Amino acid sequence: MALYPWQQQAWQQLNQQRRQWPHALLLSGPQGIGKLDFARLLAQSLLCEAPQADHQPCGQCPACNWFGAGSHPDFRELAPASADEDDDKDGDAGKKKRAVQQINIKQVRELNDFVNLSSHRQGYRVTLLHPAEALNHAAANALLKTLEEPAPGAVFIVISHRLSRVLPTIRSRCRLYPLPTPNAGQSQAWLAQQAVADAGKLLARAGQLPLAAKALADSDNLPAWQSLLETLAAARGFDPLKTAESLQKLELPQVIGWLQKWVYDLLSCKLSGQVRYHPDLLDALRQHAARLPLQGLLDYQKQLQTAQRSAHHPLNVRLAIEALLLGYTQL
Questions:
Q1: pLDDT digits over 242-280, tens only?
Q2: β 154-160/24-28 pair status
Q3: How far is Cα 265 from Cα 267, in angstroms, rounded to an integer?
Q4: Are 278 and 266 in contact (CB under 8 A)?
Q5: Comparing C-alpha atoms, which of 249, 288, 255 is closest to residue 270?
Q6: Are 278 and 261 in contact (CB under 8 A)?
């Protein structure tokens, strides 16, 4: 585990606060810039028993060995757990299960013993929680009580991809530390080191976020996305039912996200002549943007936003995709 090139300065600036370390640190920034890796390295450094001069962990002491093995007694990591929700399809008695990702109150309550007991190694007790916006309402309130009266030696590192979705009461009890987004040169250089083909195109698809671009390059779903884009970019219309059938095995939030990026570029192209996510499809975007109605695109964008908010709830994925694609063809 090592810092990414664009994180070096942020690491140095943050570690100048070691003498007055906050009991709760909130790392913010878009998903795909390496916040989780930064947070884990930071947690390891707080637990390391022989840190280097720049406060990076030594990687050799017992604490680092335990951390690397995922068994350090003074470290806990909270991430969304799968909670099954029933889906009563068309009122039928038979029910299907669908996972909903959230951090629940049970997970937060289980922290109490860990936070309030003494350290095994006479140092910090570190909790890493990510992402903060995955806390459900009850869990957020339970965490708030813990943050209001932190036990001595208890340190929280909290990550947020979308700071506006974190409760203001939680934000106010943490020291906010935004992490930098790399510039295009840094991102492309790093992707080249990772031997990512078509780095420029994937970086654009990922919104200029290098780790998201790397994940996209490694994803088995990349061909499906490319196929959908070719369908949307075609000069003639397409069959929304057939297209939905080809996408029905994918995660609905992902498919909606692809459509949102396409519509974002259509609107941007229509209003400013610029695109963000699909520069390689600029000609097709210009042709479509010229003939599609502005108000229709704005209304469809709202439809996608509404669909994304409920995308994790139990529903028929194929029917949902069909409805969205039909809405697009009606433009």
A1: 999 999 999 999 999 999 999 999 999 999 999 999 999
A2: parallel
A3: 5
A4: no
A5: 288
A6: yes
